[in-house]
Amino acid sequence: MSTASEQDRLSRTFAALADPTRREILERLARGEATVGELAEPFDMTFAAVSKHLRVLEAAGLVTRGREAQYRPARLDAKPLAAASRWIGDYAKFWADSLDSLDSYLDVLQQLTPTADAPAPTAHDKENPHD
Q: Which of 9, 75, 79, 124 has the greatest CB tally within 10 Å of its CB?
């Protein structure tokens, strides 16, 4: 069971990941650090808008910023992604068990249903069922 603060961190992570622009920023940062200007290049938005997205990512702990005078490169911090992955992974057993149950059910149905490959009964089979 997770603590309230772990749940809060997880909520911030998923909230940050909910926006496609922020996911693209994270994808870019996965290749290496970048400035706001570099991050803004592929988007039709202002530096201020990109900075706002970076603040959300920072609040979620997904991005850290350098403190070198005017040059403040952003860097990916993947630890919150690992926590989100673990949380999602906890449901993998549930889905695996559910799919295994469905597979077993389908096997039973297939055994009860004649297949198209099975030969059709002949007139001889109907006349002499005990031959």
A: 9
